[in-house]
Amino acid sequence: xxxxxxxxxxxxxxxxxxxxxxxxxxxxxxxxxxxxxxxxxxxxxxxxxxxxxxxxxxxxxxxxxxxxxxxxxxxxxxxxxxxxxxxxxxxxxxxxxxxxxxxxxxxxxxxxxxxxxxxxxxxxxxxxxxxxxxxxxxxxxxxxxxxxxxxxxxxxxxxxxxxxxxxxxxxxxxxxxxxxxxxxxxxxxxxxxxxxxxxxxxxxxxxxxxxxxxxxxxxxxxxxxxxxxxxxxxxxxxxxxxxxxxxxxxxxxxxxxxxxxxxxxxxxxxxxxxxxxxxxxxxxxxxxxxxxxxxxxxxxxxxxxxxxxxxxxxxxxxxxxxxxxxxxxxxxxxxxxxxxxxxxxxxxxxxxxxxxxxxxxxxxxxxxxxxxxxxxxxxxxxxxxxxxxxxxxxxxxxxxxxxxxxxxxxxxxxxxxxxxxxxxxxxxxxxxxxxxxxxxxxxxxxxxxxxxxxxxxxxxxxxxxxxxxxxxxxxxxxxxxxxxxxxxxxxxxxxxxxxxxxxxxxxxxxxxxxxxxxxxxxxxxxxxxxxxxxxxxxxxxxxxxxxxxxxxxxxxxxxxxxxxxxxxxxxxxxxxxxxxxxxxxxxxxxxxxxxxxxxxxxxxxxxxxxxxxxxxxxxxxxxxxxxx
Amino acid sequence: xxxxxxxxxxxxxxxxxxxxxxxxxxxxxxxxxxxxxxxxxxxxxxxxxxxxxxxxxxxxxxxxxxxxxxxxxxxxxxxxxxxxxxxxxxxxxxxxxxxxxxxxxxxxxxxxxxxxxxxxxxxxxxxxxxxxxxxxxxxxxxxxxxxxxxxxxxxxxxxxxxxxxxxxxxxxxx
Amino acid sequence: xxxxxxxxxxxxxxxxxxxxxxxxxxxxxxxxxxxxxxxxxxxxxxxxxxxxxxxxxxxxxxxxxxxxxxxxxxxxxxxxxxxxxxxxxxxxxxxxxxxxxxxxxxxxxxxxxxxxxxxxxxxxx
Lengths: 628, 174, 125
What we know:
The complex is a heterotrimer of chains A (628), B (174) and C (125). Chain A contains 19 helices and ten strands. With 628 residues, chain A is of the alpha+beta class. Among the domains of chain A are: 1-163, no CATH class; 503-605, no CATH class. The longest helix of chain A has 33 residues, at 345-377. Chain B is α+β, with helices and mostly antiparallel strands and 174 residues long. The N and C termini of chain C lie far apart (74 Å). Chain C is 59% helix and 0% strand. Chain C has 125 residues and is mainly α. Chain C has helices at 2-10, 26-38, 55-69, 74-85, 100-124. Chain C is built from five helices and no strands. Chain A binds chain B through residues 275, 282, 293, 295, 306, 309-310, 313, 316-317, 320-321, 324-325, 327-328, 331, 368, 371-372, 374-375, and chain B through 6, 9-10, 13-14, 17, 19-26, 28.
């Protein structure tokens, strides 16, 4: 049976990775050993790659003798979704996670020359981590179990909500981000083991870290965008535990990127950078653990048992604690001796690290607190948006203000805090003007929204001015920094205005009648029955007209999928640059009218645009030909 | 100072992992039980058999309230236990939740009626006021106050673990 | 379901027609929309009332709309929900002895971090 081949190859690769790990950490590395380690890793990867490829083939060709494929796929699914069903549940997604981890190691193995002193140990550490996870996969979460002797003719359908292109690529993108941080992690550990403070590991891992960060940013944004149009509630972020668990490594990774920059430019904050490398990867691992352990309530989490949770917890604690012990024992070697000057770039980034650290800590607190509270007091509490908003809004505003004043700062020099420069004055003037207009025009009563809009505008205007200066006065500007921070300002403004201006209502309309909402007329024209490949649907057709007489059609649906009888709502969205008109249908009332939920979401596309812009800035950095 | 910092870097994660270890290994016995106390909500509804009006003020003393419906499958499963409770002298008041009168009467004639009386709650307004999210759910009422609430099927084990301690503590049903 | 309709007709001091939840002002409607986002759906694994169309969520939303029209404050409404469905049905954890740590430690951490930083800078210069 072909699946057994795939299974066997995974076992072989586990063994080979184990050899690589042991060799690299115990045997004294010389050029022969290094080349042996490198080659063996590539072989191990090859086996794993073929194993995964076979598995994908099995899924794509409806091989229902494999238990997991039977449980999560179906011959009626398009091929694309047959393959994406692999990562729709625990075993398969764990396999993907592991495979991607090995891919990052492989690319690193190929790209970095053998004479790089940290290479063998880095590869070795990656290999050992792979061994741990492969053992977890093969022993507790085997995707290769078969249904014998007779294979079922057809599989169970997967959740219809998962049959969506964005959702098919959201997990892989996210995973590529999560596991990519194994590179800075393994490299920092290799650096610590090696013990020579002059090795410039930060320079080595910089582009790798930015790449992983780009994937993570895109992955999270895709998830948010998908949730908005698929789930039918019109939100883009729910502070759901699984979302939080992706945001934490992202925040720590952003801090890492800043800290790496400092360590490369002026050799300060090297201890912070190592600690952050360990933290980001630990948070990625923690994320993998928590959604599979069964202790978190989330629609997102994989149904799982505490046994697997315990194994993962043990494995992760070994990785994290041994890294930290190593860190502490080598602390004195890497401790940087010269001082950070106040108002220098390094000091601003130091403070930034503190801000990001606090935000990450707060999310962890919010996720873990209900669990501890329930254990201690036998009562449940929930920690949701109100808490996170209360913490995030003031801190993000503060951090953005620091960002604004940090732009003039220089490396390793204290030129004082510049407040009376032309760019600052101009940005302040523009921001105050725009904010005042917004205040009066929209009659804003919430002070924090005004503050966030103001701060976001400050950042945007400042960077636009800097870009202007760099284009016309040849003033130096780091493009990555400019675009990424501009995107941050835009994100801040979009989120605030979206929260301020968006509205919604549940209407009830009868067929061939209309209702008014804001300055829109919503005509309920028709109700049809629609048949899809694996569902039945009711399709409601609306024509919506605005004050000026412009109109558009929207057709939300309610679907019932055959295999599970599950009912989903399909949204209908009219997108314009400024706002979305978002429509879903609810139940039918006894008088024949239908509940029609309408939302007008302002600037919501700008939110994702800002996030993608940030990721784009990262791509610019990776593809730039500069030395660092 | 430095040593303290270094120590805290390792102590924090250790305690963190310990916390999760404890959380993973402990078992929550009765997720469906809670003991929030509040007054029986004000209501005025009809009795199932005869459409006579009944209000919360008409109910006195100690009793059990059971939320049920003819469409609820688990209610059928717990039904024999309710019958045995009634036989042992525990007064049970039924709340017929979001049901049709005909279906409810038919269900009762088919499976028997353990209730002293049954309140018709077709809109579910009384149930909502009591914090009901589905059927079956069972409440313990002590002198006009709800003192225990269980979501799910009750049986001997649940009764002994969840309701009996409260009954003994408060000296109910004497 | 029919009762719902009578319900709505009864509350006809609203200036909106053709809406499921009728309010007498824009502010009330905004208050409602915010409230249902901050209250958890009692029966779902996770998610607010706003994002749930479970029958119990619909019932609770109607009740909340009714309470708003009766002039009840947000605190009274949240107390009502918490008493019946548990404190965990509120997404904003109450501020009590047991949750001081939750609400204050982020700012404590921030403060300690910043003080630490200032201390180091001062020591160095």
